[in-house]
Design brief:
Elements lengths: L19 E3 L6 E3 L4 E7 L2 E9 L31 H5 L10 E2 L6 E2 L44 E6 L5 E5 L13
Antiparallel strand pairs: 1-2, 3-4, 5-6, 7-8
C-alpha cells in the first residue's frame, strides 16, 4: 500500500525546518519561502495585491491595467505671437458677376477686388472714372473741334499692363488709333 505525503510539494527537513503554505491560486502546498507575492498594475504604479503564489501561478503584471500617464501641459508663454493664418487664408477675389456700367460713359466699372502678390503687396488696380489732374480744356481736340460727353458704344476695355488701354466699340465713333478719350 502506498503512502500519500501530507506535505504536498513542500520539502520537509528535520535539520532545516521551514514553514509550509498554500498557494492562493492553485491550492497546492509549498514551502512558505518558495511562494512570492503577486504584483499588478494599479494606476500608474505596480502594487502588491496580497496574494502568495507559486512559480507556475505567478503572472507578469498586466499592461492593460496600467493607466496612461499624460505629460503635463507646457508652461504658457507670456505675450505669445502666433502665426496669422486668417490673413494668409483670406481670399479677396470676388465671384464673377454681371458688370456695372457707368451710365454716362458706358464703360464697365470693375468690381472692388483686392489682388495681392505672394509677398502680400496689394496690386494697384487700373484707375477708372475722371482722370486725376486732367481738366477738360487739356483734352486734345478732334480735328479742330472739342467734343465732350460723347457716348461711346464700348464692347470691351483691356490693358497690356502699361499706360496703353485698348477700347473696342460696337459702332462707328469717328475716332482714329491713338486718339485720347477721357
Amino acid at each position: 500500500m502506498s503512502y500519500a505525503s501530507q506535505s504536498g510539494r513542500a520539502k520537509t527537513s528535520a535539520t532545516n525546518p521551514q514553514a509550509h503554505a498554500i498557494c492562493d491560486r492553485c491550492g497546492f502546498r509549498y514551502n512558505h519561502a518558495e511562494l512570492k507575492w503577486q504584483y499588478d498594475w494599479r494606476g500608474a504604479m505596480i502594487q502588491n495585491i496580497k496574494i502568495l503564489v507559486c512559480d507556475t501561478c505567478y503572472d507578469t503584471p498586466q499592461e492593460q491595467l496600467r493607466s496612461i500617464v499624460v505629460p503635463a501641459d507646457p508652461t504658457p508663454i507670456i505675450n505669445a505671437r502666433t502665426q496669422d493664418f486668417e490673413t494668409a487664408e483670406t481670399n479677396y477675389q470676388t465671384v464673377s458677376a454681371p458688370p456695372v456700367i457707368d451710365p454716362e460713359t458706358g464703360i464697365p466699372i470693375p468690381p472692388s477686388v483686392i489682388l495681392q502678390t505672394q509677398n502680400g503687396q496689394n496690386l494697384t488696380t487700373q484707375p477708372y472714372g475722371q482722370p486725376v489732374g486732367l481738366t477738360q480744356p487739356a483734352v486734345m481736340p478732334l480735328k479742330g473741334t472739342t467734343a465732350y460727353a460723347v457716348k461711346l458704344p464700348v464692347l470691351s476695355v483691356s490693358s497690356n499692363g502699361t499706360t496703353v488701354i485698348t477700347v473696342t466699340c460696337s459702332a462707328v465713333h469717328n475716332l482714329t488709333t491713338n486718339d485720347q478719350i477721357s
